[in-house]
Amino acid sequence: MRLCPPLVSLLIAVTLLAATGGAQAAQDGPAPLSPAPLPDELVLRGDNVITVTINGVPLRFEVSADSFGAPLLNPDTAAQLMLFPEGGRGWQFGPVTVEGVTAAVAADFGAGPVPLPLSWTPRRASHKADGVIGVHYLPYARVTFVFHDAAEGESVQRFAMRRAGGRGNTRIGTEVTVGKKKLMMVFAAQRAENLVTAPTANFIATHREGGFEPGTDGMAVMNFGVLRPTRMMRIADPILLGDLVVERFAVRIEDYGNPRQVGEIAPDDPRFDRNHILVSRRKGKGSPDLLTRIGRDQIAHCSAITYDFAAAEIRLSCAAPPPAE
Asked: pTM of this prediction?
């Protein structure tokens, strides 16, 4: 069968087009897939460790609600990544100074690389991961820490979220009024006791009638494993944080100033008699940092805490609080 010239021309054109398209497809390969978007919420249980890819290397980070400033790497991990220091920074814990450095990296939480600052020092930042990252650096609308299974009849307490410390030392918490000032409350479930510095203890004690309990010498473990001595302060007029009755604090007694305004709780101290009408005659003194870390003992009856960055809200899911002693 003979084909007419127009039909021959058409077949040649189709053949060339197919060949050209096939060659181009082979050259380009399959179209690259875009990373899937991150979920709105990250739920953390157990060790609170997530994987973040740093400069192409997957690393494990311990997520901390108490951490402030840039994420921290362990020194051996920083050496493994061969990071070049771009600046310096330090941390002061009373008389103890920890010197460190910073660098900018590409961090991938699962939706593609984004710039992220990192810091590291000769001391380890974490003993269960490659580093520590604050909840404020996570790219999720909500982050929930689950402490244990929820109890029947739990209620949700809502607190306005506040940021403090500026860009370099950002921390996340909520505020409560004491005297004429706002006291920043940061939830720090990795430690047992509520924790304050000596000037903040002076401030709280003079407004809420506080005193040291006998025989309560202790030690607080700070970032990088720094140890600081403490004593336990109790206040006669508790601070109410929602349904939480905050009345005991571990005080860092040798860091910033002297907690001389706290005083001692004597046997049968009338200030702590529940039938006593409390009238404070002490004047508020000191230059406090106005920061209180709320430990896990204070929220032991709560099953979870959620940081809702979209709503600027912190939510605690709690059973009925334990009866006062």
From this structure: 0.81
